[in-house]
Every structure is written in C-alpha cells, then in structure tokens.
Amino acid sequence: MLIRELTVDDVEDADRLRRVAFGSIGGPSLRPGRRGLAAELDGRLAGVLTIKDFHQFYGGSTVPMGGLGLAVAPHARGRGLAGALLDASLRDLRERGQALSALYATVPALYRSRGWERAGVHEWLDLPLARVPAGARIDARPAVAGDLSALHACYADLASTVDGMLDRSPPAVDVADVLALDVVSVVPGHDGDVRGYLAAERGVDRLRVFDLVGRDVTTQLGLLSELGSWSGVLDRAAVRVTDPAVTGLLTDQAVEFTVTTSAWLLRVVDLPAAVAARGWPAARWLRPAAVDLDDVDEHAPWHAGRRRVVVEDGRVRVEPGGSGAVRLHARALGPWFSGMQDSHALRRAGLLDGDAALLDRLVGAPGVPRLADFF
C-alpha cells in the first residue's frame, strides 16, 4: 500500500472511483479549493480522499476546516486503505492550518475510530405548500450577477449566528453557482444590499428550496409567501434548513411533518489553533479560570497529552501542561467544540472523565449546530 498526494494524472480514475462510491461527485477530484490523497494497491489507484478548504462559523468567528470525502474501490475494502488515508489526512490538515475537519459518515465506526464524532445536523423539512403562511407582498425580483456579493453578505450575516455553518468563501465555494438554479429571487434593500433571497429548484413533484434567508421577519414572511404561490402547481416543498428561525418559528407546521436529517462528524485536529480562531461570546462574562485536560489521541500524537484551557480577560487560549484532571478521548472534542453535547453527555458516553463544567460554560450551547451544505 502507498499513500501519496493526488495528482492531475489521477483525476480521471479518482472521479470514476468516487462516482462508483457516491453515485455522483459534484465536480472533479482536484480543482481550486479541493486537494486530495491517493491510496495505491498493487500499483493502481484503489482509494481517494478529497479535502475541501472550508471555514465554519463558531461563536461568530470562522475556523479553518477541511471537508473530507473518502472513497475506496469495492475490491480493496477491508484492507486498511481507508484508515491509512484518514491518518495521512490528519497530518495534512495540521500542516495546512486546518484546525478542524468535518465529514458526512457512511461508515461511522471507521471515522469514530480516528477521532471524528457527531457534532451537528444537516436538515431538510418536507411540508405541504398549503401549510406555508401568506405574508405581506414584497418587491422581489430575479437575481442577477451584480447581486452576488450582496447576496453572499446576506447569507454570511445569518450564517455567523448559527454555529457550524460554512462561510461559503471562495475558492471552495463559487457563489455564482446559485444563478444556475431555476428560482433565485432577491429582495433589494438600500444602497445595493439585499434584505433577503430565495434559491430553489423545481422538481417533478415538489420545489426544492436550498436557501430562504431574510434579514427581518417581514422579508422572511414575504419570501415564504412567494414559496406558497407554488401551491396548486406543486403540492409540496422540501426546504433545506438554512435559518432555523424560518422553518421552526414562521412556517405553519402541522403536528406531523417530515424532517430528513444527515449527521455530520467533526474532528478537532489542532486544539490550540481551533480555540484561538473560535469566537467565545460567553468568555467575557467569566472570571479567570482554567481546566486541565489529558487528551487521549493515538492517531494525532501532537494532539495527545496534558494541556490547559485558560479563560482570562474575556479570551480563551490553550497552553501545554496542567494536571490532566479531565481525561477525554479525541472523539469528545468535536461535539464539545460545536456545542452539540455537554460534558455530562460525553461522560455518559465514556468519552470524558472529570469535572469539565468550565467547558460547558464556555460553549453555552446556543442551538443545534448545523451545516446547510453537503459535501
């Protein structure tokens, strides 16, 4: 077995391998914002791991994150290629300054064995269009290329308040791709900004809504009203949960509706760097304090051992040393960092031992962490 960097000469074979594994690939294995690792077996490409250059919002700040996709040829499965690629990816992520890694797991046990753990959700809400409330008419119009910067700023204002969301920065994300959708309506504001927008695609039996984003309740209700105007043409809408306020507070959901949830897993690759990049709104209210950790991490040895999480003057940092009073598994760091689980849940799962109340106070659990993008 040979693990090496993916090259342009590998792209055709890598794309074919990923297409067999996933059904579709959403773009070539190498492109701006995406790199990869290759696994050779008997001189032939047998596995590929792609890494996208993303940034996730936590506490209002962005943290560099590598979004992983892993595929192994059917004949080569069960021979250690996937584990070897994941181990190599941890070193690659750290060297390139990506303090976090996230992925959607088809085989959770594999990724958990390397320190990834469930840390948030990607959700679609399916509901009858007749259940969409009617709002006041708003002056929406089709989006044009000149709206892209303002449209992205509108999304980023929302995303910065929802832990886990991507900032959708280039080159990994091309904001111009939205214009390829069937429906992209914008609500113009003042001085060229955008108050809100609706991005959707017409399916055979329902409208698939990728983003419904508004800066205020009037705009949100107006965009929902536009969505409801499809009633009679189509019976249902599938709405990706970009803004939980819209789908949780403003739609007329009946007692029963359908939510499709995909869980994403998070791995802290470099704790000091991740803590330094993250926003910690609760820290400004905390007195100087520290918690001593002893991290068990056999697959990222630079990450293992004793260190202190220190809160001082409204800031949070990680420094070496400490007593190691709180012993935790590498898997515990992802769900703690995202706010998906508190120390009590992690203790019951056997991933943490000791008093980690300070960690809970730091995160503050402001809501379910979520991604509105699939990769």
UniProtKB/TrEMBL annotation:
PANTHER family linked to this entry: N-ACETYLTRANSFERASE EIS
CDD domains recorded: NAT_SF
GO molecular function, one term: acyltransferase activity
Taxon lineage: Bacteria, Bacillati, Actinomycetota, Actinomycetes, Pseudonocardiales
Main enzyme class: transferase
Pfam entry (one): Acetyltransf_9
InterPro entries, sorted: Acetyltransferase_Eis (IPR051554), Acyl_CoA_acyltransferase (IPR016181), Eis_dom (IPR025559), GNAT_dom (IPR000182), SCP2_sterol-bd_dom_sf (IPR036527)
Matching SUPFAM superfamilies: Acyl-CoA N-acyltransferases (Nat) (SSF55729), SCP-like (SSF55718)
Record-given protein name: Enhanced intracellular survival protein Eis
The protein's Enzyme Commission number: 2.3.1.-
Keyword terms of this UniProt record: Acyltransferase, Transferase
Domain N-acetyltransferase, residue spans: 1-139
Superkingdom of origin: Bacteria
